[in-house]
Amino acid sequence: MTAPTAPEVDCEQQHAALSVSDVLTAVDFYTKKLGFRLGFTWGDPPGMAGVNLGNVQMFLEQGAPNPKGCSVYFVVGNADELYEFQRANGVDIVEAPGDRPYGLRDYRVRDLHGYALGFGHHLFNAGPPLEIERVDVPVRLERRLAALLHELAEYKRMSLSSCLEETLLHTLEGVGPHTKSDLKHIEKLKQKYGIDYDSHASYRFVER
User: Is 17-122 assigned to CATH 3.10.180.10?
Assistant: First the structure.
């Protein structure tokens, strides 16, 4: 008898579920200590809740906690920012942030029931070194844009040249290099430096 062929499956969401001794206490920890947001509670008193980290939702269900052999991993936009928030809130840090050989910069914590939680963001320097020759190119930028670029490079832990190269290479492929976290930070920098023009403004730049 021929084994059945697995169907093509579209799956847009997955929800990890952790058993907790008290749903509201767990919700309080996840929202105030770990940086999640409350999605919903169900029941009175609640027997289940959903907490969100970005677009990912995790369920907290009433039951006997069993952290042995269980862990949940979250890929986020900027793991270092989230780590500093959690560390400042006294969260139990199991492993400090570090660049891992599997292409992620991540860290691990334990929640109030002992569940292991990992948080990391992608690294884009994986692969063998690529030898290049850099040349000096005279570049003059609009003052506010230059200030933003300096801070953005620092935020992304890159040199100014590398940040420019990354942006140019992505532009030549018709895609953007920035994560959602990067874009939120860029919006803050645009407000900080009063950048009120759009992406086509360079065609109208006139020096004083």
Answer: yes
Of 64, 65, 36, 33, the closest CA to residue 50 belongs to: 36
Q: Return d(Cα 3, Cα 7) in angstroms, integer.
A: 12
CA distance 42 to 128: 50
β pairing state of 56-62 and 17-20:
parallel
What φ, ψ does residue 78 adopt, rounded to 5°? Answer: -145, 100
Taking the mean position of all CA atoms in its chain, how far away is CA 50? 19
Residue 33 near residue 89 (C-beta atoms within 8 A): yes
Going residue by residue through the chain, which has 208 residues, state the pLDDT in tens, using 9 for 90 and above.
788 887 887 777 788 999 999 999 999 999 999 999 999 999 999 999 999 998 899 999 999 999 998 999 999 988 999 999 999 999 999 999 999 988 899 999 999 999 999 999 988 877 788 888 888 888 889 999 999 999 999 988 888 998 899 888 888 888 877 878 888 889 999 999 998 888 888 778 888 7
116, 41, 123: which is closest to 80 by C-alpha? 123
Residue 86 sits at φ, ψ, to 5 deg, of -65, -40
Looking at the DSSP assignment, which residues form a beta bridge with residue 19?
A: 61
Domain ranges in the chain are: 17-122, 143-200
> Is residue 58 within 8 Å of residue 51, measured between CB atoms?
yes
